[in-house]
Amino acid sequence: xxxxxxxxxxxxxxxxxxxxxxxxxxxxxxxxxxxxxxxxxxxxxxxxxxxxxxxxxxxxxxxxxxxxxxxxxxxxxxxxxxxxxxxxxxxxxxxxxxxxxxxxxxxxxxxxxxxxxxxxxxxxxxxxxxxxxxxxxxxxxxxxxxxxxxxxxxxxxxxxxxxxxxxxxxxxxxxxxxxxxxxxxxxxxxx
Length: 191
Fold this sequence. Notes:
This protein has 6 helices and 8 strands; from the N terminus they run E-E-H-E-H-E-H-E-H-E-H-E-E-H. It has helices at 17-33, 50-61, 75-84, 97-103, 126-130, 167-180; strands spanning 6-10, 13-16, 41-45, 65-66, 89-92, 112-115, 147-152, 162-166. The protein is α/β, with parallel strands linked by helices. The longest helix is centred in the first third of the chain and has 17 residues, at 17-33. Helix 4 (97-103) links the parallel strand 5 (89-92) and strand 6. Strands 4-3-5-6 form a 4-stranded parallel beta sheet, with helices on one face. The radius of gyration is 17 Å and the shape is globular.
């Protein structure tokens, strides 16, 4: 429609629909090259940022499952979250490097670490990870019942548990929002 229009805005930074689409395809291609298959659990351990959100879009394009995690949680909470969800791929913010170095040895399924901003010890930067990747990836067949997100239950009745959210749940939420809150010129915010 209008690929050049702003899609994500944050603190003076703007990414168009086209820029985010290209990056998401490059992430999907880098996943395929690295043997990260559809259905693998991935987390983004970062504060709210455009790049972190683009990582979520990329991992979903690759057919992987997003496991949201709170970057403000304790080290023990993060270790529990990554182990409880069987997270294998972790995108993380450079500001959380010290925490990742404490967490990673306790998460045996964590195989791929990718720092969103810059290369770190044992982790390429996102730019290095996608370098040379084509701007278009193969479509990954997904059904409406495939799991898109593994959300935390919050732990009100004990330790938090993973709650699966299939693609149809997200599609339903978006459709309901558009129906109940119509808007001719929507503004998309990253909280």
